[in-house]
Write a structure and sequence with these properties.
Length: 540
Amino acid sequence: MNKLKKTPWLIFSFFILVVIGLIVSCRPPAEKYDLVIRNGLVVDGSGNPWFRADIGIRGQRIAAVKDHLSSDRAATVIEAEGLVVAPGFIDIHTHADRDLLDIPGCENYISQGVTTLVGGNCGGHELPLAELFREIEKKGIACNFASLAGHNTIRRQVMGMKMENPTAEELDRMKELLRQEMAAGALGLSTGLAYLPGTYSTTEELVELASVVGQTGGFYASHIRNQGQRITEAIEEAITVGEKNGIPVQISHIKLAAEEVWNQLERITAPVEAARHRGVEVTLDQYPYTATSSGFTSSLPQEVFEGGREKFLERLQNPEIYNRVKQAVIRNRLTSSRGIDKLETIYIASSRKFPEYEGRNLKQILELQGKAANVDNGAELIIDLVKEGDVSAIFFQMDEKDVEALMKLPYVMIGSDGGLQVAGQGSPHPRSYGTFTRVLGEYVRERKIITLEEAIRKMTSFPAQTMRLKNRGLIREGYFADLTIFKAAEIKDTATFAQPHQYSRGIVQVLVNGQVVLERGRFTGQRPGVIIHGPGFRQK
Ligand SMILES: [Zn+2]
């Protein structure tokens, strides 16, 4: 009898305990934010003037942007008095790709405030993307990564180095491969029409292939066919590909890259603005240097590469062909309309076969070889280098006035066109180390070409909008906490063509998805980066 009476009491007591437990567990935790950035000058990425605010971060995201979070408790506080707090920079144009697996710390990008890298540019990507993404996720990376799918990669896979139009069947296979890459999470299609084998393709082929992107969503990015005398028609070709498929067009690393077209900005602005007026979404990116970097193959007649490397070497045995190639190199690379000594303006960035040439210009190399520094010998040297393959060079071929004029255009954003670098290896273009800090130090602070807010917009919300990245590129509640904190008065690139392996000055703190990856100039070793998938992504 006694036992029976006790039972309801026991149940009641238990119920009370559960209720108390629930109340305790639902109480706000003592630490409201994982991290608070206090008193910074917030340049939020929109282009609006800076404002003073505190930023509260919880997990991967920005949880609050308020005047004062001082009464709130945070696990960690970053004092940002006098510092600019901006969204992490988004680099729409890199060649990071597979190198992420060897250089997962992304140091040369993190150190200039970049938190998201986009690869797969200029027509080349890692096929299949799903596999690269899987490997990257397994490895862990410091910055976020997204990729385009490249036309050259896809074409080579299906057609090899054939210099002809694809058959209906070949085109179908190319489209199928692109569909596969879009489903793996590619952001869109890229072309490199100055490179092999893209140079063998027609506009019709590109329009047809890009129709896949028209169906899945995404954008078309193009290293256009010509950046000199025929730049206008090359831009128009890119616009056609986008316009016929109803997709945005991104013209990569825009430049007037021949003396004959220097200071003729209308060759770019006219076709772009006409298209934008028609309702075609055309945008561009640039890097803040007067030198380009690539291999030499685009200076040779493209047909000598048909069928691949063996055939190319075989053809060069023929003196008549050799001479034709040599004349083309002289015409395309070594002739100046302004009396500029081209041998002095071309530097070897990297060469596996001739590491002793790295960092030297063609004139210096010829002198080293005991040869006369003339265009004939220069052309022969270039052919020798191309024969060895795997050579990249730096070409001073732009005018500073054009770099500045392009930067002032509201529809031109910043992109490095660089890659991941191992400190001390080769003599790469300094853009891989200093693109973003150079814009902020040299073009914003020193030369006052654009405002700080406009520069940040070109590095954050603008590329995010172009690529339709969700919740990145702005400082807003709910957005991912990719943030760059820097001293506006000190920010500066220090990488030069002579000494490229130099980290920038003035970047104080960099956060990726809420975690600190750079702290007072030191890499923390954290790898909070994620893969950002495009609109066609299907989870497997
Ligand atoms: Zn390119």
